[in-house]
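Practice record 12: protein with adenosine monophosphate.
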Amino acid sequence: MTFSELGLSAPILQAVEECKYQHPTPIQEQAIPHILEGRDLIGASQTGTGKTAAFALPLLSDLEPLSKPQILVLEPTRELADQVDEAFRSYAKHTDIHTALLYGGMGYGQQTQDLKRGADIVIATPGRLVDHFYRGNMKFKDLKCLVLDEVDRMLDMGFMPIVRKIVNLCPWDHRQTLFFSATMPPMIAGFAKWCLKDDAVEIAIARREVASTISHAFYPVGLDQRDDLLLALIRQTQFHSMMIFTRTRKEADSVCGLIRGSGYGDTVTVMHSDIGQKERMAALKGFREGKFSILVATDVAARGIDINGVTHVVNYRVPENPEDYVHRIGRTGRAEATGDAFTLLTADELDFAMAVEHFIGKKIDRRKLEGFKYAYTTLLDDRPLRPVRKPRPASPSRRRR
Ligand code: AMP
């Protein structure tokens, strides 16, 4: 299928061509015709599948510039909002449609100006959007479409009460609602039922799946050799851009320091929520533009951000939440490019490793790094790996005997 067969308008097709997209991705193929028809839609789909274009292209195709908010897109994080705004602007470049981008951690001046000048599309994080509403800058009455993106992340981040309030502010009778969430636990499904019309179309794409373009494996190692194996992996890998995920902010700083001190100096940068917005943006920009080839990040900081052409992802630890595994490694192999993902695995993380395998429904290869001097760990034995379980204390009755 081609983009022109999907019924998009000429200026949007021209922008898509300039983005060099050859074919619609599966979510685009499924979602675009329904969105063009004006249907409500609920999509189980992660970032990296072409989800942003799946809603942005048909919405832009069908929009007449009126210089007042007609489309509202809610995003959980500033970085994601930034990225979605950039996507809308590039797809809208041959139209007179304008966007306003609203998020916290920045002054109100520019954002207010953008709203007052007349924006057709508002992309916002929930808290700042409501602030603009109270200041009288943001009007909801002409909204034709509400896009709730990454709803499960918004739930995780405690935004649900404010998101409900925003949904209530939007007109109900003539509103189209598009709802995206990587996962659909009962609470999210209930919320979706509340905001969507009864005849909403449901689409599910690549839920729980690791793209076939990604080669991923566990690298078992003893706890005290984790750092050495990480450095050896980096040295032996020919990478263009590598993202390394850590569990905590402190760990991100220490891994960044470790790599910088091992000959990689200023090519490494770090991103976590203790780092100011400006520095985070600078790290992201530097990584995107190739000034940094390694980005060490925590999940919260890196959630949803779109970085093209990441060739490698490393998990310094197995993620505690199996969905994060799929999200993290999905950063390589985006929209059909190939990528590699390594996950360091120590004995205390076997339960998490098994949870990931259970979640994706597949066994993940265990690999050894050629030439690395491994100290002995039972993880390297050729028998099936089992979580290390503490022996149960004997029951009081048995102890008495
Ligand atoms: P998303 O899932 O929206 O985060 O998109 C992931 C990446 O895929 C973005 O960098 C898009 O520019 C890119 N992309 C979106 N649609 C396509 C397509 N049809 N072909 C190639 N790349 C695409």
